[in-house]
Amino acid sequence: MNNGYILNDRYKILSQIGEGGMADVYLAQDLILHRKVAVKFLRLDFRDDPKAKARFQHEAMAASGLNNPHIVGIFDVDEVEGMQYIVMEWVDGEDLKHYIADNYPIPLGQAVDIMEQICSAVSEAHRNNIIHRDLKPQNILIDKNRYVKITDFGISKAETEDTMTQTRSIIGSIHYLSPEQIKGRAATKQSDIYSLGIILFEILTGKVPFNGDSAVSIALKHSQEPMPSVRKINPQIPQALENVVLKATAKVPSDRYLNVDEMAADLNTSLELSRSDEAKFIPDSKKTVKNDVDGETRVLPFNSLPNDDSFINNAQADEKQNQPESKQSNNSKKPNRKRRRRILLTSLIGVLLLIFIFIFVSAMGKTQVPVVSGLVENAAEQKIESADLMVGKITYKSSSNINKGRVIYAVPKENSTVKKNSKVDLVISSGLREVRVDNYVGEDYSQVAKKLEAKGFKVKRRNAPSDNFKPGKIIQQDFPVGAKYVPGKTTLVFVVSTGIKEVTLKDLTGMTKDQVISYTNKYELNPTFEYVYSDGQPNGRVVRQSPRAGQTIRQGSNIAIWISRGSQNNSKATPLNSFNIKITIPFLDASSSSSQSNSNGNSGNSGSNSENIVLIYLKDHDHSLSNVYKQMVIKSDTTVYLPFKLAKNEVGKYRVVRDGKTILQGNNITAQSH
What we know:
Blueprint: E1 6-7, E2 11-19, E3 23-30, E4 35-42, H1 50-64, E5 74-80, E6 83-89, E7 93-95, H2 96-103, H3 108-127, E8 130-131, E9 140-143, E10 148-150, E11 157-158, H4 179-182, H5 189-205, H6 215-224, H7 230-233, H8 239-248, H9 260-268, H10 292-295, H11 310-321, H12 325-333, H13 337-363, E12 366-368, H14 377-386, E13 390-397, E14 407-411, E15 417-419, E16 423-429, E17 435-436, H15 445-454, E18 458-464, E19 474-477, E20 484-485, E21 491-497, E22 502-504, H16 513-522, E23 526-532, E24 542-546, E25 552-554, E26 558-564, E27 577-585, H17 590-600, E28 612-619, E29 628-634, E30 638-646, E31 652-658, E32 661-669
Parallel strand pairs: 13-16, 18-21, 23-26
Antiparallel strand pairs: 1-2, 2-3, 3-4, 4-6, 5-6, 7-9, 8-11, 9-10, 12-15, 14-16, 17-20, 19-21, 22-25, 24-26, 27-30, 28-29, 28-31, 31-32
């Protein structure tokens, strides 16, 4: 993605700020809301991968449903030219991993503050029954004011979903993964709490508690080795704060905090003097792995077991670890220890064989609902039929996250076990919700704008003097009657009568663009902005205006404003090519105007047989196609020169609209072609 590329006529790519296994992240400028945003693109090599696309869409859906100041906000989700992207809040800072490296040792009060902010975000997710499953410093952003936000819900799961993690395909980052996830059990809220404990350990010590030459060795340490003491690394850490780490990272989930709020409350008082004599936290040694997660032993799918003896060895180690110390020492003295080991090994093999037989018998006549979300309808049907299931009822539902024609979800839910030949209902996206617009010419603008904004549309006003329409009445609209639009993605522009009032212009030199807009809105004028290099005015300030200050013009007239880019000697200035495009705008006379009015319900001649009001939209380095560049009143065929300023790789466009109809347009305009 090249710098300067404008995505969907709105987001201007500034630079790449991140690169991942499935997606790349860019810093961009929102040209409509004038703010910096982060744009996350699914990489091209994953564009046709249903699982990657589903995960990408899931991230947007999961995060957009959460409302917390410490969770990165999702602004927009869309697809353009086959590229899926998510527009999200940009955090001007770094991830927590780099922050720890740059600032270690971190003061204890600051460490607690950072963790409490993280807990606030995770608590919000848990309240919405979403388990993150990949909490790590790389997914936590911190700005220059130490304000924290978590991101990347790509592998999060609803608590009610099957979150079984297979041994050979561990989901999440191994340094922060809970023992139960490593062993293939379901991820729960306590699994996220374990990850929070590891993150706190790293903030306090500058390193992760377990490391190794391979993921397997690290996983074994998480499962079997006790958590290292943070106080041995830094004796200044009080026991109460170390206890937060120990309780959050207990091997057995039921030994951990019941919820994140409980952990945050414990953190909040961990530095108080009243807890200075607190004893070291020790989990209840009588609890066993058998009681974790939900009080029942989980039976792993047979194909998730490692194809070596590690499972048996681990089982032996766990069995030995759960015996009292005295019993272990007595056993070591018995001469028939080898015989007992053989018996134990034989028993374990027998148990595994029974498990396999049980799974095999249970599986007969049953199958799993395949993952079909994100697939087109035909592909989803084929996948369902391949799983010995039948396609049931198909319904359509509007969606702001799933593209039109693709599956939103299936019923029964994906990955659930059902009888063969069962019916699976599909809910297919009908695309974004569209709303039909009417003919508003002659109506009061303020009432129409209020009604349309309530439906979700963005509404903009252009002014024009008129002898035939009273002030505040709509003269013209830039969209056809009866058309359907997506409210959240559509801006409706109206030309509104100002009557025949006049205004004497003030000197706008030195003002900012926002100040100019405020002034022109107040006096119902239409500003047209141009950008020039200037040594006399700083970047963003008005250099000159036309008509000049002191002149009297009618309300609704255009006023040209030149704004400074700063000095041309600035080495950071983007080289631009300037050129003009010549167009001739045809005049619509009275007879053809009457014909058009009869066909589409618009006035056609904008209230006068001798004048046409036209709106010109222009896209170049400085202008967006979503905003009116210039408004003109013509009385005959009129030649206009449209000024373009384009960088080397930029593409320009223009279109001319009259009475809701595009009468002229130009695409793919480049500096090289002119």
